[in-house]
């Protein structure tokens, strides 16, 4: 038995060139968490996600995945980590020139030895999981916003990831579709025994499915608090965190 956290963010600073975005980030994520990264517009949520998925080396500190630091690892370890992650960013989740079937098949073709027939079966299964059975031949432009998000989820799930990253998964969806997507994320997370990290502004999602969250602050350029969002909403010692989670007007100025 080890007490190494599933993910440990240690003294992390992130930014672009000489412009710091966030610093002194320290928190852990447990296996099976549905972990939200929250905070006002432009505070650095997407930047944190980019840094966590290997797209932006930190300016200081580290993110450890069961003790492994992506940026310090050799290529084989980096590929192992990358193929155990499913990532959907807000834009560009799907390649527009490919059908849904081809989009979902792509990671399987790149990273597995499966035959064409096996890939076809896995694609059909993943599309069924997100309620898109029979849509293999559709192009992303032929889908509604909600279907597009679910198809992005199917592609992220292609390699049965143990860790899923989502940037604003329900952006642009109506409240009902957004709630259905939340339920789908919870079901898939349980079925695949996965852990999920979500960047989101959506308070109903944060409150209904979030197990823990970290609040990034624009003013101080660091985290103000982290923990169970329901707890923080009531008891955070940080007024800006309570304002945000209670949707007080004061949080809108962030
Ligand atoms: N590629 C980039 N180069 C330089 N600065 C960037 C880049 N991408 C983002 N930034 C800046 O970094 C800061 C944080 O941006 P980021 O997109 O991470 O915030 P966010 O919290 O995800 O915002 P939102 O909630 O509005 O999507 C912003 O000031 C943004 O202008």
UniProtKB/TrEMBL annotation:
Classification via Pfam families: ABC_tran
Tagged with keyword Membrane: no
Q: Tell me if Glycoprotein is a UniProt keyword of this record.
A: no
| SMART domains reported for this sequence | AAA
| Keyword entries, A-Z | ATP-binding, Nucleotide-binding, Transport
User: In Gene Ontology terms, what is one molecular function of this protein?
Assistant: ATP hydrolysis activity
UniProt cross-references to PANTHER family, sorted A to Z = PROTEIN TRIGALACTOSYLDIACYLGLYCEROL 3, CHLOROPLASTIC (PTHR43023)
Q: What is this protein called?
A: ABC transporter related
Q: Which organism is it from?
A: Shewanella denitrificans (strain OS217 / ATCC BAA-1090 / DSM 15013)
């Amino acid at each position: 038995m080890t007490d190494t956290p599933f993910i440990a963010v240690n003294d992390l600073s992130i930014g672009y060139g000489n412009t710091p975005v966030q610093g002194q980030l320290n928190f852990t994520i447990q296996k099976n968490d549905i972990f939200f990264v929250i905070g006002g517009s432009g505070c650095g949520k997407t930047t944190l996600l980019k840094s966590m998925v290997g797209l932006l080396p930190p300016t200081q500190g580290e993110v450890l995945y069961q003790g492994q630091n992506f940026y310090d690892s050799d290529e084989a370890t980096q590929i192992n980590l990358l193929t155990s992650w499913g990532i959907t960013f807000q834009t560009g989740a799907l390649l527009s020139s490919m059908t849904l079937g081809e989009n979902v098949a792509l990671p399987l073709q790149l990273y597995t030895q499966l035959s064409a027939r096996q890939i076809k079966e896995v694609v059909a299964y993943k599309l069924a999981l997100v309620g898109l059975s029979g849509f293999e031949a559709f192009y992303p432009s032929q889908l509604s916003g909600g279907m597009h998000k679910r198809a992005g989820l199917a592609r992220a799930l292609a390699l049965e990831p143990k860790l899923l990253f989502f940037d604003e998964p329900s952006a642009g969806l109506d409240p009902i579709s957004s709630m259905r997507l939340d339920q789908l994320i919870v079901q898939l997370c349980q079925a695949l025994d996965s852990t999920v990290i979500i960047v989101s502004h959506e308070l109903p999602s944060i409150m209904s499915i979030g197990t823990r969250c970290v609040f990034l602050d624009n003013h101080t350029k660091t985290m103000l608090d982290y923990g169970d969002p329901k707890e923080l909403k009531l008891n955070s010692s940080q007024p800006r965190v309570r304002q945000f989670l209670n949707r007080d007007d004061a949080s809108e100025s962030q």
